[in-house]
Amino acid sequence: MVATSGSISLAIDSIKEGNPRKIKSLHIIASPEGLKKLDKYPDVEFFVG
Protein backbone atom coordinates (compact mmCIF):
# COMPACT_ATOMS: atom_id res chain seq x y z
CA MET A 1 0.00 0.00 0.00
CA VAL A 2 1.22 3.47 -0.84
CA ALA A 3 -0.33 6.08 1.44
CA THR A 4 2.17 8.87 2.03
CA SER A 5 5.06 7.15 0.18
CA GLY A 6 7.40 7.36 3.17
CA SER A 7 8.08 3.63 3.56
CA ILE A 8 8.38 2.88 -0.15
CA SER A 9 10.73 5.85 -0.62
CA LEU A 10 13.02 4.52 2.12
CA ALA A 11 12.89 1.04 0.57
CA ILE A 12 13.70 2.33 -2.92
CA ASP A 13 16.60 4.43 -1.62
CA SER A 14 17.96 1.39 0.23
CA ILE A 15 17.62 -0.87 -2.83
CA LYS A 16 19.32 1.72 -5.06
CA GLU A 17 22.44 1.52 -2.88
CA GLY A 18 23.00 -1.92 -4.41
CA ASN A 19 22.84 -0.52 -7.98
CA PRO A 20 20.09 -2.80 -9.30
CA ARG A 21 19.43 -2.99 -13.05
CA LYS A 22 15.77 -2.16 -12.49
CA ILE A 23 13.22 -1.80 -9.73
CA LYS A 24 9.56 -2.76 -9.99
CA SER A 25 7.10 -1.98 -7.22
CA LEU A 26 3.72 -3.73 -6.94
CA HIS A 27 0.91 -2.40 -4.72
CA ILE A 28 -2.68 -3.42 -4.12
CA ILE A 29 -3.86 0.13 -3.36
CA ALA A 30 -2.30 3.59 -3.48
CA SER A 31 -3.35 7.15 -2.77
CA PRO A 32 -3.03 9.73 -5.55
CA GLU A 33 -0.98 11.92 -3.22
CA GLY A 34 1.44 9.10 -2.43
CA LEU A 35 1.93 8.23 -6.09
CA LYS A 36 2.56 11.89 -6.94
CA LYS A 37 5.43 11.97 -4.45
CA LEU A 38 6.98 8.94 -6.18
CA ASP A 39 7.48 10.95 -9.38
CA LYS A 40 10.99 11.55 -8.07
CA TYR A 41 11.78 7.96 -9.12
CA PRO A 42 11.29 8.00 -12.91
CA ASP A 43 13.43 4.87 -13.27
CA VAL A 44 11.16 2.75 -11.02
CA GLU A 45 8.11 0.97 -12.45
CA PHE A 46 5.06 1.18 -10.20
CA PHE A 47 2.06 -1.13 -10.60
CA VAL A 48 -1.18 -0.60 -8.67
CA GLY A 49 -4.05 -3.12 -8.70
SS summary, helix count: 2
Output the helix-strand order. HEHE
Please state the overall shape, judged from the principal axes of the Cα atoms: globular
Report the β-strand fraction as a percent range. Answer: 15-25%
The Cα radius of gyration reads 10 Å
Q: Whole-Å distance between the termini?
A: 10 Å
Overall number of strands:
2
Chain-averaged pLDDT:
97
SS-based structural class? alpha+beta
Biggest sheet overview = 2 strands, parallel
Helical amount: 25-40%
Strand order of the largest sheet: 1-2
Low-confidence stretches are none
**How many structural domains are formed by the residues?**
1
Structural commentary:
The protein is an alpha+beta fold and 49 residues long. It is 35% helix and 20% strand. It has two helices and two strands; from the N terminus they run αβαβ. The chain has a two-stranded parallel sheet with strand order 1-2. Strand 1 (23-27), helix 2 (32-37) and strand 2 (44-48) form a beta-alpha-beta unit. The chain is globular and about 30 Å long. The model has no long low-confidence stretch (mean pLDDT 97).
